[in-house]
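Bug report

Summary: structure tokens for Peptidoglycan D,D-transpeptidase MrdA differ between web form and batch submission.
Environment: batch mode, default settings.
Steps: 1) Submit the sequence below via batch. 2) Compare with the web form result.

Sequence submitted:
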Amino acid sequence: MRDRRHVLKNTHQEVRIFRLRSLLALLVVVALTATLMGRLAYLQVTQHEVYITRSEKNRVRVEPLPPTRGLIYDRNGQLLAENRPTYNLMLVRERVEDLDATLNLLVELLALPEEGVEAFRERSRQRTRPFQPALLMSDLEEEQIAHLALNRHRLPGVEVEAQLLRYYPDAQMLSHALGYVGRINAEELATLDPGNYAGTHFIGKTGVERFYEDVLHGQAGLRKVETNARGRVLRELGRTDPVPGENLTLTIDRDMQKLAYELLDGRRGSIVAIEPASGEILAMVSAPGFDSNRFVTGIDVASYQALQDDLDLPLFNRAIRGQYPPGSTVKPFLAIAGLAEGVITPNRVINDPGYFQLPGDTRRYRNWLRWGHGRVDMERSIEVSNNTYYYTLAHEMGIDRLHEHMTNFGFGQRVGHDVFGESAALMPSREWKRGRFNQPWYPGETISVGIGQGYWQVTPLQLAAATAVLANRGKWVKPRMAKRIGDHEQGAVLPETLSDIVLDSEEWWDRVFSGAEKVLSGSEGTARRTGVDLDYRMGGKSGTAQVFSLGQDQRYDADELAERLRDHALFVAYAPIEDPQIAVSVIVENAGGGSTHAAHLARAMSDAWLLDDEALDVEELREEMENDDASVAGN
């Protein structure tokens, strides 16, 4: 038997295994290489455009270029709203690694007060387009800019950006007429054109700024820039320049606006002056005003609350939203209505015993002169402001015809063409009362309307517009604020103007004008002291609006009442009568009779416009008003 040796190494087997493994390894390498090459081919060839675009987005950024907001001038070229250079704090959320930590650092560096921190954080969360900067803070101070520059390396995604910021040189006296711009809020952002408002952080909120927002804003542009890995701009690759907003020239005369504001002297009230032939608003003041510049960058909570809590309501635009009983200022308009309806003639005379009574009613509706004016025709009824004449007229016309004719003068309607936020006030009617109170209209309520009381409410702008229509002998021209947009003159003929008021006889206008002129020049005129030494013919009508109703036999005593319970003083005027160049309405709250306070203010406005009276002494005028308080009776 042959011996078997123990074989320690099988060379043949090892070679076979090695070859098998090498083959497998080769197949794997080939497969991986093929996969890699296929992937590279896919990326480089098939997806070439996609990845080129992504690469460009990492290196190239498109930035919006906000347009420069148009300037606002008065009719004489004086600047009313300008743009001043300022520095804003901007944040691109997508480039911030830790938003909370960044905001905490900014609060510390800027030394923000505690009450402003929450608003600061809220702005950082405001929705914007991807990579579009959010405005955190406007009008940075030099010290704040320095702190941010020193800590720039700790603030990725945070930039200090130079921009133009709205500024109002005469903020107080023009706060209501111009309005103001403010930061775009989330609600506005949802309705704005995202392309045109990209990069824009402010928008018109009230007044002219709001109404002419589209004109003043302009068209946004864009630029393409190259950035580094940190998002810093290296160079500009191309741009489309923005189109600046159009400059706006208003009908407002700054000097007239200033005079009106000074005449009111901080008292609650309003003065509106209109050029009758064109409808151009020369002045529109609501007092007291407020500093509109504080709203541009964002007013702090405490200051805003103080304005809201102020009993004088400085944020309330009395000129277009204040609603007051017109009082006796409407008597010339009522006389026109009576003539148009044939209810009265210029020569009709009534006997005034000092009161009026409805048939079968014991209640007496008192004239302001308790013993009466005796025989009164139409002209004298306007001159002495006789109530009994207009009680009688209102009763004979009835509320339906009164409502129709007074709406023809613009009462109960928005009369301004480009006046944002105007109230229609209230011209009462039978249908209105049924809808409002579910009650019928009573004859006694018509009597109250006959002297501009009861439910009737007007705005100062409505009164000025109606006075302009009267001065125009019935021709309607809508009041407007814009004189030119850019270089384009705005015409006086505007859409939706009310129909002209036509009377059967032109002489009737003359007779009403004669009564209105005697208010200032007649021996019995309620504002005869105001008309002393007039250098032109002026028509006017005083009015007194009750803050609360008196009982039938009660007498009004201002000295016994709190100041805010006293009557409002009103006056409307136009001049010169033969060719009216100005129509004015004045309302001074709680000032008493309109024949003193309000009449003097209307005279001062007319003098300034017609005589270019630069020597007017406002202090002397105030003393004269105080001396006249007790010397002229009537309203």
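Above is the batch result. After comparison, the two runs are identical; trailing whitespace caused the diff. Confidence is low (pLDDT under 50) at residues 550-558. The radius of gyration is 37 Å.
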